TrEMBL record, chain B:
Pfam families: BPD_transp_2. The keyword Transcription does not apply. Belongs to the binding-protein-dependent transport system permease family. LivHM subfamily. This is Branched-chain amino acid ABC transporter permease. Keywords: Amino-acid transport, Cell inner membrane, Cell membrane, Membrane, Transmembrane, Transmembrane helix, Transport. It is found in: Cell membrane. GO terms for molecular function: L-isoleucine transmembrane transporter activity; L-leucine transmembrane transporter activity; L-phenylalanine transmembrane transporter activity; L-valine transmembrane transporter activity. Signal peptide: none annotated. It is a multi-pass membrane protein. InterPro entries: ABC_transp_permease, BCAA_transport_permease. GO terms for cellular component: plasma membrane. The keyword ATP-binding does not apply. It comes from Thermomicrobium roseum.
Automatic annotation (TrEMBL), chain C:
PANTHER family: AMINO ACID ABC TRANSPORTER ATP-BINDING PROTEIN (PTHR45772:SF7), CONSERVED COMPONENT OF ABC TRANSPORTER FOR NATURAL AMINO ACIDS-RELATED (PTHR45772). One of its GO terms (biological process) is D-alanine transmembrane transport. The keyword Nucleotide-binding applies. Keywords: ATP-binding, Nucleotide-binding, Transport. One of its GO terms (molecular function) is ATP binding. InterPro entries: AAA+_ATPase, ABC_AA/LPS_Transport, ABC_transporter-like_ATP-bd, BCA_ABC_TP_C, P-loop_NTPase. GO terms for cellular component: plasma membrane. The lineage of its organism: Bacteria, Pseudomonadati, Thermomicrobiota, Thermomicrobia, Thermomicrobiales. CDD domains: ABC_Mj1267_LivG_branched (cd03219). Pfam families: ABC_tran (PF00005), BCA_ABC_TP_C (PF12399). This is ABC transporter ATP-binding protein.
Length: 557, 356, 269
């Protein structure tokens, strides 16, 4: 029994250690060595390493019922991981691997050992931190019900605040900023205060939910009153963004908006109708290029149109493109559909890139001098002003999504997603259902593309690669396929955060890959699951796990 | 709701408007291609020798596609899923082996023993790709077996990008050039020596694969699982093991294809797996997915069309830089084959999904 | 009155003839069973009638008009609904949504109505929900509207499948082995439900069934298929004594006196 437990603990420690090797050698951990979160010592790299050790301990400990087993085995795992990290530090220091592995630098060794270097001192530091992380994780999971979660949430909140120093610093009142933040990251006092405040906040939130009295109190205000009030408040906050956010932040918000629009569009296709479209970027491109061709004096016809004329034309063109893609793939099964749409996306990009169509679409250099919108004498020019346009578009797309979801068309999409054959036997015309999903979904993408082209002022083929499609799929998967709030959360996490953190840009797609795999393995319904869809995926994966070892899993799908 | 003039059919099949439109589009494309070819041939810009070179190059390239396509087809055969990350499996072998090749070159071993070096590179690349393929199966696919089709497809896409950017992180985003192998320089009659080497390499690998599938117990297990997983399990075949073997063999061949690719194209990079991966998948579907000879035939056909296509189809129209449309042709073939003949030219030997 | 009629219906799969020259006449308000050994072509017959397969030859007429080769969703709208042998619900939608999807062809409002939530939309949705609840009550699932379909017990899933089929307001209901996998008590209830469908709602029932007890119990007419051909038709009693039927079920020789001279009745088997 003990041998087995020890073997399991060591195994998990090794796996976490290998994950640490991976993150180190691809450069993710050293990249954040300069990003200080709290005080001068706690960098983002260290936070990542500590999180890794704590996760190892948690993953080991969670299988046992009591603290008496959780803590020691968790600590063992964390220590094994620490040793693995130290081993990597040793290797990096004593072997010259830089010829092959870009990130096998002495700097990496220093980061890995928390500044101790590949020596006895470093080993002691690492083991000590491993021990603490293990104790911490084990202790947390041993705490009664809400506390573990509250503390972890508060800690994450604190780190996030430190991470966003450069963004939040200028926005907050001078007094707050100078108290919270030091030269880099949170000041120690700031960190403690933030952590305590966050703890109180999360505790309050939890007790509000759990407490029967408050639950009744909130229920006393009927939903018909409560919801509009909350919605109005949210709207006010959203609409006020240009007032307090600077140029940079507004720009980021615009880009998040473009992805929310695309996410809502793909959600109709993938989330509601269950059709995996890997070429969604094609619609974004069609929208952007229609806007470009119609309003820029550089290409095609000699005339140029006003933004407001071009915008509806762009959307309609995209709808037609959606039908054009939708028609041939109507009869395809899921995996072929994914590849065929990917093919469409690539064809669009390659055609746009080609010299053949250069006179019309600008070739590799793209098209510049795309029109900006103006209302009467007000020219919408800056990202701040543009934000309002993006916000209105997103709200409109959201509104449309909700209304469609609750209609018979939405139900026919769900039916197709669940069982295409039966859907037809229930009188649903699969041609109309699928085509409408493709067409409406495409229109959101086209709108997004048209706005994008206008804001940036130029389009180049490089902006329309497969990576955009993958980005949209990833944000849907992270938030939860079929879930509208999930789209927003996904876009904030996968588009907003990387835009804010420069070092992160390079590892964006690596993280998308991890997100796609990890979400499907551990939380297939996403962070904010759609109420119904959640059950479907989670159960199916549960079932798959149960029969996985000696499975006989034909017949489904 | 009334049904205006319902369209009725007998004779076993039904055609509706959406299908007619699709067929019309297909017809127009075919006409464009045919007309273009006629115009090109009449214009006579290219000599017979040039066409021959196109074909030879196409065959060499198609042979590589065929090798990768086998991996897709075998995995599809046993799991009925598309291993979207297979292109990256191919890339991982080629990328990693660069460092071995580079080392051999610097130490002078490559010059002294070119054939031994070549075999070492092929084996090394095969082993790396094999490891990657097996790891992908273990981590991203096996825990999700039996889940809805969408789920493993999404993890496959995830695995694909994870691998790409892992290699980018490890080795950098730059392009690396394989050292030249002295014995493979120059021409043999009208062929480049590298092309001959690639073709022979592919043939040997194919022969070994056939032997493996026909003559070994592991090969038998794979065939049994591909035929009927349930029955195979009942007959005592270790299904998990057969699946892992499939990934391993497919990965190994992808690794070999990686080195052969590097011989032809010299340069390797973290993103190099994407296009050959998609094209090999096209080849697999073209030949009939699940069908081993089909994958080989599909690879060759695709390679040749892709090689002569841009000149043959588009030159007659006077399109500028027609070679840029090479990948457009490949993707169009992919889409068309999925639309019009998803069972491929030679048929899906392992049978598709129940269609009712 | 004849509700459904097939004449010379033929369907081949490659070399295999799944249906050969099948003539079938289903009278209105009848409970009509189709029986036959495995692979006799019963489910193929259902798939041809519902439009999922297009027959190679022959004609299918439904209340006087030909529906041969009509698209499945159009067949459904004409009033032919079906259930499946291995229950096929929209497993992860709510019970109510399952039935609402069945009502799809009868909900009448435009996309614009849905987007603007016009009175017309609200009226149609309310009426649909009322009808769905009524149907659920009819099959005995009242109070379970917001369960996830997959979480219902087996018998309830069968009932839900029938309620969903009823939502199409069918004239003809095709039931594919409705009592498969049920215990005697559940089977008894299912038989009662099928009778009520005919008696209270006037729906004609065409039913595939393996359980002879059920077939003999509720059928007005029984058609026997074997290797894609109709080999007998008549009242349960007639069919039970038909030597060709006994041969098909029990193999050659049985009919010549070596075996029982009739198909086993409940209790005899």
């Amino acid at each position: 029994m003990i041998v087995r437990a020890a073997r399991r603990a060591i195994f998990i420690g090794l796996v976490a250690g290998i994950a640490g090797w991976h993150l180190s050698l691809v450069g993710l951990i050293p990249a954040f060595a300069q990003r200080r979160l709290v005080g001068d010592t706690l960098t983002f790299s260290y936070a990542l390493l500590i999180a890794l050790l704590a996760l190892a301990a948690f993953a080991t400990g969670r299988r046992y019922p009591g603290a008496a087993q959780r803590i020691p085995w968790g600590v063992l795992s964390a220590l094994v991981s620490s040793l693995m990290l130290f081993l990597l530090a040793l290797l990096v220091t004593h072997l010259n691997l830089r010829q092959i592995l870009l990130n096998a630098t002495p700097e990496l060794a220093r980061v890995l050992t928390f500044g101790g270097g590949a020596s006895g001192a470093g080993l002691v530091r690492l083991l000590l931190i491993g021990l603490l992380a293990g104790l911490f994780a084990g202790g947390l999971s041993a705490l009664p019900r809400p506390w573990g979660r509250v503390i972890v949430s508060a800690a994450l909140m604190t780190l996030l605040l430190g991470l966003l120093r450069d963004v939040l610093g200028p926005l907050l009142p001078r007094v707050v900023t100078s108290f919270l933040y030091g030269t880099a990251g949170l000041s120690l006092a700031g960190a403690v205060v933030t952590f305590l405040l966050a703890t109180v906040l999360f505790t309050l939130r939890w007790s509000l939910r759990a407490n029967a009295v408050t639950a009744r109190a909130t229920a006393a205000v009927p939903a018909t009153v409560r919801q509009p009030v909350i919605q109005a408040l949210l709207l006010l906050i959203l609409a006020s963004v240009p007032l307090w956010a600077g140029l940079f932040l507004s720009n980021v918000a615009d880009f998040v908006g473009f992805y929310i629009l695309m996410g809502l569009g793909l959600n109709l296709v993938l989330g509601f109708a269950g059709l995996l479209d890997l070429g969604y970027v094609a619609f974004f491109a069609v929208g952007a290029y229609t806007m470009a061709v119609l309003t820029s004096p550089e290409v095609g016809q000699r005339f140029t149109l006003d933004f407001w004329v071009a915008l509806p034309i762009a959307v309609v063109t995209t709808v037609l493109a959606g039908l054009l893609v939708g028609l041939p793939v109507l009869r395809m099964r899921g995996d072929y559909l994914a590849i065929a749409t990917l093919g469409f996306g690539e064809i669009v990009r390659l055609l746009v890139l080609s010299d053949w169509l250069k006179p019309y679409l600008g070739g590799a250099q793209g098209v510049t001098r795309i029109a900006r919108p103006s209302i009467a004498s007000w020219r919408i020019d800056s990202p701040q002003e543009f934000y309002l346009l993006v916000l209105i578009s997103c709200l409109f797309a959201w509104f449309l999504s909700v209304r469609l979801r609750d209609s018979r068309l939405g139900r026919s999409w769900f039916a197709i997603r669940e069982d295409e054959h039966v859907a037809q036997a229930m009188g649903i015309n699969r041609v109309t259902a699928k085509l409408s999903a493709f067409a409406i979904g495409a229109s959101f993408g086209g709108l997004s593309g048209a706005l994008f082209a206008s804001l940036v002022g130029s389009v180049v083929p490089a902006s329309f690669s497969l990576l955009v499609s993958i980005n949209v799929v990833a944000l849907l998967v992270l938030g939860g396929m079929g879930s509208l709030p999930g789209v927003v959360v996904g876009a904030l996490a996968l588009v907003g955060l990387p835009e804010l953190l420069r070092e992160f840009q390079e590892y964006r797609l690596l993280v998308y890959g991890i997100v796609l795999i990890a979400m499907m393995l551990f939380r297939p319904a996403g962070l904010l699951p759609e109420r119904i869809h959640r059950r479907e995926l989670e159960e199916a994966v549960e079932e798959a796990r149960e029969i996985a070892p000696a499975e006989i899993a034909t017949g489904r799908g | 709701m009334t049904i205006a003039a319902p369209r009725r059919f007998t004779g076993g099949r039904r055609i509706d408007i959406s299908q007619l439109i699709v067929w019309a589009i297909g017809g127009i494309l075919l006409a464009i291609v045919l007309l273009g070819s006629i115009l090109t041939l009449r214009a006579g810009h290219y000599t017979a020798a040039q066409w021959r070179d196109f074909v030879v190059f196409g065959i060499a390239q198609g042979a590589i596609y065929a090798l990768i396509a086998l991996g897709y087809t075998m995995v599809y055969g046993v799991l009925r899923m598309i291993n979207f990350a297979h292109g990256e499996v191919f890339m991982s072998g080629a990328m990693t082996t660069f460092f071995l090749a580079d080392y051999l070159n610097r130490s002078g071993f490559l010059k002294a023993h070119p054939w031994i070096s070549l075999v070492a590179m092929l084996l090394f690349s095969g082993l790396v790709s094999m490891t990657v393929a097996v790891l992908v199966e273990r981590i991203a696919y096996r825990p999700l077996r039996g889940a809805p089709r969408l789920v493993p497809l999404i993890t496959a896409v995830g695995a694909s990008f994870f691998l790409q950017y892992t290699f980018r992180g490890l080795f950098g985003s730059g392009v690396r050039a394989y050292p030249a192998i002295p014995v493979l320089q120059g021409k043999l009659w009208v062929f480049q020596k590298t092309q001959v080497a690639v073709f022979i390499g592919v043939l040997i690998t194919l022969a070994l694969l056939v032997l493996f599938l026909q003559r070994t117990r592991a090969g038998l297990a794979i065939r049994a699982v591909a035929e009927d997983r349930e029955a195979a399990a009942l007959m005592g075949v270790d299904v998990d093991r057969a699946i892992v073997t499939t990934f391993a063999v497919g990965g190994f061949m992808a690794g070999i294809a990686g080195v052969l690719y590097a011989l032809v194209f010299v340069q390797v990079q973290f993103f190099m797996g994407f296009l050959p991966g998609i094209k090999a998948f096209t080849a697999a579907v073209l030949g009939g997915i699940g069908n081993l000879p089909g994958a080989a035939v599909g690879g060759l056909v695709l390679g040749v069309i892709e090689s002569i296509g841009p000149s043959l189809f588009f030159d007659g129209y006077g399109i500028r830089a027609a070679h840029q449309l090479k990948d457009v042709i490949a993707f169009t073939i992919l889409v068309l084959i999925l639309i019009f003949r998803p069972t491929g030219l030679l048929g899906e030997r392992l049978g598709g999904e129940e269609r009712v | 009155m004849v509700l459904l009629e097939t004449s010379h219906l033929t369907k081949r799969f490659g070399g295999l003839v799944a249906l050969r020259d099948v003539d079938l006449v289903v009278q209105e308000r009848a409970i009509h069973s189709v029986i036959g050994p495995n692979g006799a072509g019963k489910t193929t017959l259902f798939n041809c009638i519902t439009g999922f397969l297009v027959p190679d030859a022959g004609d299918i007429r439904f209340s006087g008009t030909s529906i041969t080769g009509l698209r499945p969703d159009l067949v459904a709208r004409l009033g032919i609904a079906r259930t499946y042998q291995n229950i096929r619900l929209f497993r992860h939608l709510s019970v109510l949504d399952n039935v609402l999807i069945g009502l799809h062809p009868h909900i009448n409002y435009s996309l614009l109505d849905a987007i603007l939530r016009t009175p017309r939309y609200r009226r149609a949705e309310r009426a649909a929900e009322r009808e769905a609840r009524e149907l659920l009550a009819f099959v005995g699932l009242a109070g379970k509207e917001f369960f996830t379909a997959a979480n219902l017990p087996y018998g309830d899933q069968r009932r839900l499948e029938i309620a969903r089929a009823l939502a199409l307001r069918p004239k003809l209901l095709l039931l594919d082995e409705p009592t498969a996998g049920m215990n005697p008590h559940e089977t008894e209830e299912m038989i009662r439900l099928i009778r009520r469908l005919r008696d209270e709602r006037g729906i004609t029932i065409l039913l595939i069934e393996h359980d002879m007890k059920v077939v003999m119990n509720i059928s007005d007419v029984v058609t026997v298929l074997d290797f894609g051909e109709k080999i007998a038709e008549g009242t349960p009693e007639e069919v039970r004594r038909d030597p060709r039927v006994i041969e098909a079920y029990l193999g050659r020789g049985a009919a010549s006196g070596l075996g029982p001279s009739t198909l086993p009745l409940p209790g005899e088997a």
